[in-house]
Design goal:
The strands form 6 sheets. Strands 2, 3, 4, 5 and 8 form a 5-stranded mixed β-sheet that branches. The protein has 588 residues and is an alpha+beta fold. It is found in: Membrane.
């Protein structure tokens, strides 16, 4: 019997103990140490040495700077009545990237509702968003009223937001439009006072720096920069007089089918402009009505030959230089005076007349003889001293200084025509300043459109005695038999001079006329100077005494009553010059 061989038991072979290799362990430790050192160095570099870059990148994602809107300063008249105010509105904007990210255009009914409330074409609005799909900001509509903005907000369109703005509102509308001006869509002045004093009115917007989370919620207020409100301006204009003057000019332009009309009223004592209007005008609240033809302030931009309104200054120059006195008699002949190859004519025969009658009858021959009796530089110097050929002082954009002749050689006929207002051109504002200087007994003050406290110091450019004599003569022009009797005002002593000139065209004169009237009231103590210009009236009436004088009378009467100036019709013209001078000294 064979013995079985016994198999050995299944035993696990013992593993060899791990071999510790020092150089490998050291190498790994070195690499780990270097990596750790690099991380520490990088962290130190980022956090300590140069942290600005990452901070900048982080701020780009969370920090936002919001503009704190400041209102534009108010413009008011001399009595505090608002002429231009800022009202809060909203701008509707869109972020096309966000719109497409949230598939915002899928809700077409809401976008159509947005277009309807903003007054936009539906498809045009959709096309605008698609055309700017890579932009982060576009305006959809500016200066939206609060009620419309509230509706837009309720539409809850992704990527559509509101931004605070302000819109200029003009309570007086077309009445003061040429003077006050208008602002553009971005709130900066385009015309008039709005443009001239734009920096003063604008102020500075504030800033608010905040941090927002991913949902657009403010989580931190970082900094605030206070806003600086625009400064208000009080004009010298009296809105009551402005409204009366505008209605009168607008009616006259319509009645006589004239191209345009202008009126300027000045406070004789201070040189402040109390009214400055033009027709046609425009409504600055309606931007669709902004046409350059209507927006021009003709009272300071348009020039015309002043015609017979220059005759009082010729008489004054003759008195000042001893060429004539109150007893001088000038023979105007049969109403026609030959000068070289040209003729000077009078509308009616005056015959032999003193200075008062020459002025009353508006004799071209009479003032021509006075002009020819003195150097031309003397007459032009007197014109210039009364403010002709220079800026009036209102400092409005677009003001013209007129056309003041300067020649080396003058013909006798040219010297004669200068005496009755041909050969030079002035603006209505310049003529108003000249007559205001007459009213202040020869004290020339610059005009001001800004309200001033007290009396602006002026320059004495003529003798008070002689100026007062001319004022007395000027009063006679509005009395029975005078050329400006339609400019008279019941109950008041008024001095005025009418004029009519042909419109200058290339190479001579056209067939159209300009009628105007300039004057003062009350003569016993002049307070108001006024100029009325009616440009190119149509029909049979075109003389200044027919179209401009009635406007002068109507507006002057209302102004004297509104300003509570006492009637002086009973004082008579017999006041002594010395007494009158003392009164003016006391008032100034």
């Amino acid at each position: 019997m064979k013995k079985r061989t016994q198999k050995p038991a299944n035993r696990r072979t013992p593993k060899a103990p791990p071999v510790f290799i020092k150089w490998r362990f050291g190498l790994i430790c070195v690499f780990i140490g270097l990596a750790f050192a690099a991380l520490v160095a990088r962290a130190a570099f980022i956090q300590v040495i140069e942290p600005d870059r990452l901070r900048y990148e982080g701020d780009l994602r969370s920090v936002r700077v919001e503009e704190v809107h400041s209102a534009r300063g108010m413009i008011s008249d001399r009595n505090g009545e608002p002429l231009a105010v800022s009202v809060p509105v909203q701008a509707v904007w869109a972020d096309p990237v966000t719109v497409f990210k949230h598939q915002g255009l899928a809700k077409k009914d809401r976008w159509y509702a947005l277009a309807d409330v903003l007054g936009l074409d539906r498809q045009a609005l959709i096309d605008k968003i698609e055309a700017n799909r890579n932009r982060r900001f576009i305006y959809l509509q500016r200066q939206v009223r609060p009620a419309m903005a509230s509706y837009v907000n309720k539409l809850d369109l992704p990527g559509v937001g509101l931004k605070e703005e302000s819109r200029r509102f003009y309570p007086s509308a077309e009445v003061s439009a040429h003077l006050v001006g208008v602002t553009g869509i971005d709130g900066h002045g385009l015309e008039g006072i709005e443009r001239r004093y734009d920096e003063w009115l604008t102020g500075e917007h504030g800033k608010r720096t905040v941090r927002k989370d991913r949902f657009g919620r403010v989580v931190e207020h970082i900094a605030t920069e206070d806003k600086k409100e625009g400064q208000p301006i009080a004009l010298s204009i009296d809105q009551r007089l402005q409204a009366i003057a505008y209605r009168a000019i607008k009616q006259a332009v319509a009645d006589y089918r004239a191209t345009s009309g202008s009126l300027v009223m000045v406070d004789v004592k201070t040189g402040e402009v109390l009214a400055m209007v033009n027709a046609p005008s425009y409504n600055p609240n309606n931007r669709g009505d902004l046409k350059s033809f209507n927006m021009r302030n003709r009272a300071i931009t348009d020039v015309f030959e002043p015609g017979s309104t220059m005759k009082p200054f010729v008489v004054l120059t003759a008195l000042e230089n001893g060429v004539a006195d109150m007893n001088t008699v000038i023979d105007t002949g049969n109403g026609i005076m030959q000068i070289g190859g040209s003729r000077v004519r009078d509308v009616s025969k005056v015959g032999k007349a003193n200075l008062a009658r020459i002025l009353k009858k508006s004799s071209n021959i009479g003032v021509s003889k006075l002009s020819l009796a003195m150097p031309v530089e003397t007459l032009l110097g007197e014109y210039g001293s009364f403010g002709l050929g220079a800026s009036t002082g209102v400092e409005l954009v677009g003001e013209s200084v007129g056309i003041f002749p300067t020649r080396r050689r003058w013909s006798d006929f040219e010297r004669a025509t200068l005496a009755f207002g041909y050969g030079l051109s002035v603006t209505p504002a310049q003529l108003a300043r000249a007559y205001a200087t007459l009213g202040s007994l020869g004290v020339n003050r610059p005009l001001s459109i800004i309200k001033h406290e007290g009396v602006t110091e002026g320059k004495q450019v003529a003798t008070r005695d002689n100026v007062y004599k001319v004022l007395q003569m000027l009063e006679g022009v509005t009395q029975e038999g005078g050329s400006a009797r339609r400019a008279a005002v019941d109950g008041y002593r008024v001095g005025a001079k009418t004029g009519t000139a042909k419109v200058a065209v290339a190479g001579g004169y056209g067939d159209e006329y300009i009628g105007y009237t300039a004057g003062l009231a009350p003569i016993s103590n002049p307070r108001l100077a006024m100029v009325v210009v009616i440009n190119e009236p149509q029909g049979d009436k075109y003389y200044g005494g027919q179209v401009a004088a009635p406007v002068f009378s109507s507006v002057m009467k209302s102004a004297l009553q509104i300003l509570n100036i006492a009637p002086d019709a009973q004082t008579g013209p017999g006041l002594q010059v010395a007494q009158r001078s003392n009164q003016v000294d006391a008032n100034e």
